[in-house]
Amino acid sequence: xxxxxxxxxxxxxxxxxxxxxxxxxxxxxxxxxxxxxxxxxxxxxxxxxxxxxxxxxxxxxxxxxxxxxxxxxxxxxxxxxxxxxxxxxxxxxxxxxxxxxxxxxxxxxxxxxxxxxxxxxxxxxxxxxxxxxxxxxxxxxxxxxxxxxxxxxxxxxxxxxxxxxxxxxxxxxxxx
Length: 176
What we know:
mainly alpha, 8 helices
């Protein structure tokens, strides 16, 4: 915000004016401060280890044995850490999982085609490129995560796909 305000002030002067040059330097410094503050805030919001994610937000079916439940939450937390998700983003991913698991338990599996249509609506002309990025990110996470996403039906979730794409962009693994 500070950089934008300084840039507006700068526009009142000609490039050879010393005031323009001073404001130009201030804009660069303000932008650097804002980027550093944003990176610091993100780093603080992203756990150092997977076990620091709010694992209690994941609602596994009650018939899942404790050992399997632990393995599932460990897999989710490890994938979230590798994607670079914040704790808040993990909660969104957990909510997507909870919704898919609840619907599957009620005999209403996630409609993959409907979810693809949602993604087409969100991404428009960038659909193919964005879907390729999401698939590459899932592949990067490894075959265990990909298999789990397929097994649970979560791999078809437009919410999760959008979250994965956002994280890839934020961490420089995908273009904006």
